[in-house]
Amino acid sequence: MKIFLNERKFEIAEGTTAFQVRDIIKKDADIIVLNGFIIKEDMPLKENDRLTLIKRGEIPDKDELEALLIARHTPGVHEKVKKAYIGIAGLGGLGSNVAISLARIGIGRLLLVDFDVVEPSNLNRQQYFIKHIGMYKTCAMKDIIFQINPFVNVDIKNVYLDENNITEIFKEVDIIVEALDNPYSKATLVNTVLNKIPEKVVVAASGLAGYFSNNTIATRKIKDNFYLVGDGINEAKVGCGLMAPRVGIAANHQANTVLRIIMNERDV
């Protein structure tokens, strides 16, 4: 009978249990993950089950690392996620959070687009560190992603997006995440995608300022290729700033929408 042990095909006898495999292959493993879930009691294995054996505190070699990074995934997700190419327009509060969430799920390839550098006021909500101040956001984020998941292929473009370059820059990606700060730039990106490259899906966000209710942030499907996240009301303005919690909620709405589209779940 075939199972996948740390994502590699492995033959076992009918009736073999998870703990029996552990005792044969890695007796000191103290984390046993079966089909994305940590088990505490022994269970019989079935054809095509995915079993991951982990020893707490042990740093795996690179050949094994990727399998352990995806151990908690729902079975069947990684194969599709690994093939996806996602473009992120803007690497501020939204884009930096989206990029990290997609890296953590093992996205195959990212295109990161931003013209700006990291500055101190970014650190209240954006996923950078003091050491990144003064660096291009694209370069800083590429460095962070490598520290999280070195198996993600990251392309970067240090450029200001406008109607003259959007089509060319994003021509190869599957899905575009709109994560720009400027309302005019947001509208330009979305309108350009919808009008000039309608085969692409765009996941945008608007209305996420302040510390208003979590539950007013929602994902709406506007068209088959256009999703919009936010409350649609609370834009950043004088007296109503942008802070990590609510921005993070919206960003992860965007990231999860991307994942759902990859998995052919097109409803919100």
Question: Can you describe this structure in just a few lines?
Answer:
This protein is of the alpha/beta class. Helix content is 31%, strand content 20%.
What can you see in these coordinates?
This protein has 268 residues and is α/β, with parallel strands linked by helices. The chain has two domains: 2-75, Ubiquitin-like (UB roll), CATH 3.10.20; 78-262, NAD(P)-binding Rossmann-like Domain (Rossmann fold), CATH 3.40.50.720. It is 31% helix and 20% strand. The chain has a seven-stranded mixed β-sheet, with helices on both faces. Strand 9 (175-178), helix 7 (183-196) and strand 10 (201-205) form a beta-alpha-beta unit. Helix 4 packs parallel to helix 5 and helix 4 (93-104) crosses helix 8 (244-262). The longest helix is centred in the C-terminal third of the chain and has 19 residues, at 244-262. The model has no long low-confidence stretch (mean pLDDT 96). One of its GO terms (molecular function) is nucleotidyltransferase activity.
Largest sheet: 7 strands, mixed
Helix fraction bin: 25-40%
Regarding CATH, which class of the largest domain? Alpha Beta
**Discrete helix count:** 8
Query: What class, by secondary structure content?
Result: alpha/beta
The counted number of beta strands is 12
Shape: elongated
Which regions have little confidence, pLDDT < 50, spanning 5+ residues?
none
Report the portion of residues in β strands: 15-25%
Q: Which H/E pattern describes the elements?
A: EEHEEEHHEHEHEHEHEEEH
Query: Would you identify the CATH architecture of the largest domain?
Result: 3-Layer(aba) Sandwich
Domain module count: 2
- Give the spatial strand order of the biggest sheet: 8-7-6-9-10-12-11
Mean pLDDT: 96
By CATH, the superfamily of the largest domain comes out as: NAD(P)-binding Rossmann-like Domain
Could you say what the CATH topology of the largest domain is called?
Rossmann fold
CA radius of gyration = 21 Å
